[in-house]
Amino acid sequence: xxxxxxxxxxxxxxxxxxxxxxxxxxxxxxxxxxxxxxxxxxxxxxxxxxxxxxxxxxxxxxxxxxxxxxxxxxxxxxxxxxxxxxxxxxxxxxxxxxxxxxxxxxxxxxxxxxxxxxxxxxxxxxxxxxxxxxxxxxxxxxxxxxxxxxxxxxxxxxxxxxxxxxxxxxxxxxxxxxxxxxxxxxxxxxxxxxxxxxxxxxxxxxxxxxxxxxxxxxxxxxxxxxxxxxxxxxxxxxxxxxxxxxxxxxxxxxxxxxxxxxxxxxxxxxxxxxxxxxxxxxxxxxxxxxxxxxxxxxxxxxxxxxxxxxxxxxxxxxxxxxxxxxxxxxxxxxxxxxxxxxxxxxxxxxxxxxxxxxxxxxxxxxxxxxxxxxxxxxxxxxxxxxxxxxxxxxxxxxxxxxxxx
Length: 405
Known about the structure:
Layout: E1 3-5, E2 9-10, E3 42-43, E4 63-65, E5 71-72, H1 108-115, E6 119-126, E7 129-137, E8 143-146, H2 148-151, E9 156-160, E10 166-175, E11 180-185, E12 196-197, E13 208-213, E14 221-237, E15 243-251, E16 263-265, E17 270-279, E18 291-295, H3 296-309, E19 315-316, E20 319-328, E21 331-341, H4 346-350, E22 357-361, E23 364-365, H5 369-377, E24 384-391, E25 394-401, E26 403-404
Parallel strand pairs: 1-4, 5-7, 12-17
Antiparallel strand pairs: 1-17, 2-7, 3-20, 4-17, 6-7, 6-9, 7-8, 8-11, 9-10, 10-11, 13-14, 13-16, 14-15, 15-18, 16-17, 17-18, 19-26, 20-21, 21-22, 22-23, 22-24, 24-25
C-alpha cells in the first residue's frame, strides 16, 4: 500500500507531496519519483499526550496530503485552561468565550447541523495555479485554522462561509513543522460562528467522530466513522517541503483531497482534530478508510502562538535518531536509538548518551524514531518529560526539560 499526503484540490495545476515510512523526502513535482529519498536519522522530537498507547508507523505506505481534503477545523482549548466548548482565541491570542456548537452527545445529523457554520471552504491562488482546502473558524475576529500545505505559496486566498458569503483572507502565520496555519478574514462579519473546542487527549479508540470539509470543492460535506487508532506516527510533507512527523489520530471516516485543514468533531460537536492526510493505494485512489488528523491539543497550542506572535515555538530534545531495539529484563522492545547527542542540548543535560534506546515517553511506548519525534513535537518548550531508556541491558528513567529549538 502506498500513502500520499492529500494536496489541495487543484483548480489548474497542483502537486502531491510524497511521504512515506520510513521517513521520506517530500517531492513538489506533480509526478513524484517512484521512490522517495529516505533520511538515515530523524533529528529533534517533541512529546505527545502522556497516556496514549503508541502504534507502529504506517508500513509500506505513503501519505497523501489532504490539501485537497476538507478545511482545517481545529478544536482549540483555551490558552489558560478554559473548559472545552468555550475556549477560543482573541485577536491577541488570549482565551475568550465564544459561541459553542456543543450538542447533547447526539447523532451525526445533530452534530452536522450544529457545526456547519463553523467550517469554511478555502480557495488558494498561486503562481503556478491554485487549489482548495478546508478550515475552521476559531474566534469571532475571523481567525481560521487550516493546514500549512493548504495555503503555502498563496498569492491570494478566498474563504467561502457555509451560507455562501465569500471573503478575501490573509495569512497570519504558518508552521511547516506541524503543517498548521492560521489565516484571517478581511473585515470579518459580526455573525461568525466559532467552533466549539474539545480535547484530543480524552479520545478513545472506537469513539465515533465526524469530519466536515470541502473535498473536491464539494463544500459542507459530512462523513462519519470511528477513531481507529491513537498516536499513529505519520510522516508527510508540509507546503514548504519540510518533513512533518505527527503522532496522529487515525480514523475510518472518508477523507479526500480538499478535506485538508478541516475539522474532526466528536459527537458533542467539539473539534478534536484537524484532518490532514490519508493512506491510499495510489495518487488516483480516494479514501480507503485510512485517514489521519492532527490532534487538537497540538493544533490549539500552535494556533494560539501564531495568533499571538505570528509564529509557533518548538521543543528540542537534541538527538539524532534511528529505529532500534533494546533488551532489558529478558524482554526485547522497539524504540528510538540515539546516534548522536547535540552539545548543550536538553538530552545532554539529562544524561542521554549515544547508543541509548528510548522506549517510552511518560509511560507511553515509543515504537521508533518517528514515534519519539511525534511525542516531542507535541510539547511546548520548557515542558519536562520522563523518558524510559535502555542502556547496556538496563532500564533507566531520565527526566528531560525540553528546550526551544
